[in-house]
Design a protein that fits this description.
Radius of gyration: 22 Å
Helix content: 40-55%
Oligomer: single chain
Largest sheet: 8 strands, mixed
Number of helices: 13
Length: about 400
């Protein structure tokens, strides 16, 4: 039997998917959608049953909206037209906008809707499937063009390309060798409130620059529930927990019992961290892709997921390791040229924020151009990186503030 016939026989017994995506969050669903729209056989694996809860503020800014599948209807719980800023609970000021700044969603609804879009495009979705590891060599791999995805129960799924989108504690990221240089702890509570309290928050969010260097808290209204959370660098979980407790008490919400209290680690990749290994790509949280200052991750997940799905198709078509490597490098270049630049600016903003939170607070609440830039970023008409690149005044200001 020829090698071609032998390979065909194996595929008849154990089908080889063009692309297998691990993780059905925004990054994974976007990757599965992009690959399925291209007409490829796509399997989307998710360890949980959907819908499932995810610790996340749920803010949908312009770049997130623009990265969604055509015709996708966002399940907004509220539309934000005002932001109240405070510095450790003091110097409070509210800025308002006639245009919507961004929208607020519940992640279970949003994620489930994205999975449905991937299914409509032709992807097959399998929940309750925990991935133990991936193998690109050995007995489980029938040929050099195939990756074996091994599930927790021992079952093996074969693919021409794999996309890891399995969150910040990614098994696929570990396989690729993702390296991290910033880890933060986010704590959050979903607090049901009476209608009178909900009305006071409708259309308005609160951002509080916190007491721990680089920390901040937020209140995001979603109908009769307020999403209240804080985030700071990992290392002093007790201090972060106290910040959340004090924050909730200061807001007058301590008397309301949360429906959900949760925590989550966010992880930012280092500049030299790999984004692929062989025929395996990583995206979203699994790749450590998020904005380092605000730790905004949904837009990074959607955008990197789409790119990963597109390049996974090319890798699936690659006839040898050299071509697969070429396509993986092209994916890495696309990520670094876009999201990587934004992350670089975000790191500079975080360093500035850690040293001079009061200065940033004063600028955004008292200097109209700073507020205009903030509004532009949230609406998606510009990005922080674009402002630094195209506005000499912003470049000079940031460079001056970078100095100790």
């Amino acid at each position: 039997m020829s090698s071609e016939n032998a390979d065909a026989g194996r595929e008849h017994e154990e089908p080889v998917w063009d692309v297998v995506v691990v993780g059905a969050g925004p990054a994974g669903s976007s990757a599965a959608y992009a690959a399925a729209v291209a007409g490829r056989r796509v399997l989307l694996l998710e360890k949980a049953e959907l819908p499932r809860y995810k610790t996340c503020g749920g803010g949908i800014i312009g770049p997130s909206r623009d990265a969604l599948p055509p015709g996708f209807e966002l399940p907004f719980r509220d539309r934000v037209h005002a932001v109240t800023f405070s510095l450790g609970g003091k110097l409070t000021r509210t800025r308002r906008s006639k245009q919507m700044l961004f929208g607020l969603i519940n992640r279970p609804e949003f994620d489930a809707a994205l999975v449905q879009e991937a299914e409509k495009a032709g992807a097959v979705v399998r929940t309750g499937a925990t991935v133990a590891r991936v193998e690109q060599h050995g007995a489980a791999v029938p040929d050099r063009r195939t990756v074996a995805v091994v599930l927790a129960g021992g079952e093996t799924v074969l693919a021409r390309a794999v996309v890891g989108a399995d969150g910040s504690a990614s098994r696929i990221g570990a396989h690729v060798g993702v390296k991290l240089d910033q880890v933060d702890l986010g704590l959050e509570a979903e607090i049901p409130v009476p209608a009178t309290v909900a009305e006071d928050w409708a259309g308005r969010v609160l951002i509080d620059w916190g007491p721990i260097p680089g920390s901040y808290g937020w209140v995001f209204p979603k109908g009769e529930t307020l999403t209240v959370g804080v985030i700071s660098a990992r290392g002093d979980g007790a201090a972060t927990k106290r910040y959340l407790e004090d924050f909730i008490a200061r807001l007058g919400l301590a008397g309301f019992e949360p429906d959900v209290s949760s925590g989550h680690l966010t992880r930012c990749r280092s500049d030299d961290s790999p984004l692929s290994r062989g025929r395996v790509l990583v995206c979203g949280d699994a790749a450590g892709l998020l904005e380092p200052w605000t730790r905004e991750g949904i837009s990074f997940a959607l955008r990197s997921g789409r790119l990963a799905g597109e390049w996974a198709v090319r890798i699936a078509e690659a006839q040898d390791a050299v071509d697969a490597r070429r396509q993986a490098l092209n994916y890495a270049f696309a990520i670094k040229a876009g999201l990587g630049v934004e992350m670089g600016v975000g790191r500079r903003m975080l360093a500035l924020f850690e040293r001079r939170p009061g200065l940033l607070h004063a600028a955004i609440t008292g200097f109209r151009p700073a507020w205009t830039m903030f509004a532009g970023i949230t609406r998606g008409s510009t990005t922080l990186a674009e402002m630094v690149r195209t506005r000499p005044l912003v470049q000079r200001a940031l460079s001056a503030l970078d100095r100790p």
